[in-house]
Amino acid sequence: MKLDNIYQEEKKSNFAKVSEIIITMASRPSGFIGLSILIFHVILAFISPYIAPYDFKAINPTLMLQAPSAEYWFGTDDLGRDVFTRTILGGRTALTITFFGSLIALLWGGLLGIFCGLVGGKTDDIVMRIVDAFLSIPWILAMLLIVSLLGTSTEVLIPALGFFYGKGIVRVARAATHDVIAKDFIVSARARGHSNFSIIWFEIIPNVRDAILVEGAMRWSWMLLGFSSLSFLGFGVSPPTPDWGLMISNARGLMSFAYWSVIAPIVGLSSLIIGINLTADAFAKALGIDRSTKAPV
Amino acid sequence: MLFLIIKRILLGLITLFIVSLITFVGTEILPGDACTTYLERQAFGEQLEACYRRLGLNVPAYERYVSWAANAIQGDFGYSLSGEMPIKEVLGPRIKNSLVLASAAIFIGIPIALILGIVTALWRDKLPDVAISTVTIFAMTIPEFISATLLILIIAIWLEWLPGIVIVPTDVSFLELLPNIILPVIAIAMIMTAHMARMVRSSVIQVMASEYVQMAILKGVPYWKMVFKHVLPNALLPAINVVALTIAWLLGGVVVTEVVFNYPGLGRLVIESISNRDLPTVQALAIILASIYVSINLLADLMTLMLNPRLKTLQIRK
Questions:
Q1: Is residue B140 classed as helix, strand or coil in its secondary structure?
Q2: Inter-chain touch A295–B241, beta carbons under 8 Å
Q3: Are B144 and B260 in contact (CB under 8 A)?
Q4: Domain at A29-50+70-291: CATH code
Q5: Between the CA of residue B44 and those of B35, B40, B50, B60, what are the distances in Å?
Q6: Domain ranges of chain A
Q7: Radius of gyration (Cα) for chain A, nearest Å?
């Protein structure tokens, strides 16, 4: 009974911690703006299929390149499709793919980094050389190659993005582990004869979690940027799917007389990326981690 | 000191060796080889055999790697598949064009970034800082293809001041190229400047908070003398690494901007060679871009070492 109480108290305090962090994030103007934009986009991504006024793939030659009107709020594109419908649906794919991509990046990058930091020695040297080598190949070249040879399905995109954005996390996790590893409680855990696994799980992860989470949040916005660049170049999701990068690249050629079909997806994508960025920044500040001196890798 | 430099160079070479292995193995294990993609439907029997023999694909992979690597070190990357041209000749003008673009962006970007970074740091949390920081956040986070598209829409289409896309042959003289590159340079310099300005800002703020600067203030050193003599030399040192990373990014990573503006540089070659499944060119590009990245980082590390006496002794003690 008593143990049960302790357990519940801990649960509660965890929940309190999370809500405290969110309140701290929202108390700064930039954090508040970022969180609101992000929440708006996430809600929109969930409800957009139900509120979209038209069919996103309904081609109508009689309605080509209509200017914005009461009927078609953002006008229509070169195939007569409603731009408003396609814009509010356009974030769904990008958000889903990059969210799961970031999770994968966080998992493999974080765990490998912690492992290398803890073990050190030859293993660490070899792994870090390989990570360095991957870092020096432009990610876009490698991504394009994979996508052009294996296709652009979600099953290819998520792990590929997760892999290429995770290698930067390896370095961060390793550095964070190095900071922790010299502390007394690790030494005493070793003296107690704990295994590497138990040290990682109970001693290191609770201490490096914040740094890795912040890095992951930042990677999410970079990955979104990378993913939309891929779609823009024609290597992302395939055409009938509404996607902002794809919409911008299609509408770009016609923007001298139909600028509305390019403005709407631009506003959608820019606001989401800025929203995630501001949120990640506020998250870092709320946890007391200074990212400002880090170079963008 | 000498030992450190040699160690750094060796590490860079090892990294490049691994890069060459990764690109070779990577293009090898992915489904479809140069011949099957090149011949498409006719990829069987006699023709396939002939193609394999012509490209030397009939020998074991490790032998091919050795001969490829040996040639690549001498600057010979073989022939591109689509153009039947030596890759060396394809790359030459592209590298030149990318260099022009990158140096123009650096030339404009670095001074502006320094000024913006220092101004925002010295007037921290005041109006100039808030205004400039907001703009830099926008410039930094918005994807390149969006800022480039907006630039074309506003400056080339609505105001009609400059040509929107670059329509020049690959090997054009510098003066003819100049009016065409203004918009791409602005697009690239914007992102680059924003990154560097933020870096300089936080670095200056850190130094301003340090004890020796506090001491100088207490001693009554005039404000601007203190800024220029004590703060800036120390604050700008870590910025070298960021500048290096930015230059490396400029030379290889501006794929999207080059595509938007139709600029014939290395970035567009990446897209072209991948669309054409021109694997020999892709391999050459990967190894060249990686060498640029590694050598620029190496240079930056060495420069930081040379310029910072403290770091020198620290490293040797280790």
A1: helix
A2: yes
A3: yes
A4: 1.10.3720.10
A5: 10, 9, 10, 20
A6: 29-50+70-291
A7: 23
Contact A248/B146, CB-based, under 8 Å?
yes
Q: Which of B141, B145, B201 sits opposite A274 (nearest CB)?
A: B141
Task: Mark yes or no for CB contact B27/A136 under 8 Å.
Answer: no
Classify B277 in phi/psi space as left (phi over 0), alpha (psi -120 to 50) or beta.
left
Distance, CA of B129 to CA of B118 (rounded, Å): 10
Q: Which residues of A touch B242 (CB under 8 A)?
A: 295
Q: How far is residue B6's CA from residue A282's CA, in Å, rounded to a whole number?
A: 42
For residues B233 and B276, state if they share a domain.
yes
Please indicate, yes or no, whether residues B39 and B160 belong to a single structural domain of this protein: no
Q: Is the ipTM of this complex over 0.95?
A: no
Residue pointed to by tokens 């994807």: B143
Q: Do B145 and A248 touch (CB under 8 A)?
A: yes
Pick the residue with more confidence: B177 or B194? B194
B61 at interface of A, judged by CB pairs closer than 8 A: no
Taking alpha carbons only, the member of A219, A210, A127 closest to residue A166 is A219
Assess whether B165 and B272 both reside in one domain. Answer: yes
- Does the distance separating the beta carbons of B253 and A270 come in below 8 Å? no
What pLDDT digit, counting tens, does each position of A93-152 carry? 888 888 899 999 998 888 888 888 888 778 888 888 888 888 888 778 888 878 877 777
> Do A129 and B293 make contact, defined as CB atoms within 8 angstroms?
no
- pTM equals 0.81
The residue in chain A having the minimum alpha-carbon distance to the alpha carbon of residue B296 is A136
Enumerate residues 118 to 157 of chain B having a beta carbon within 8 A of any beta carbon in chain A: 137-138, 141-146, 149-150, 152-153, 157
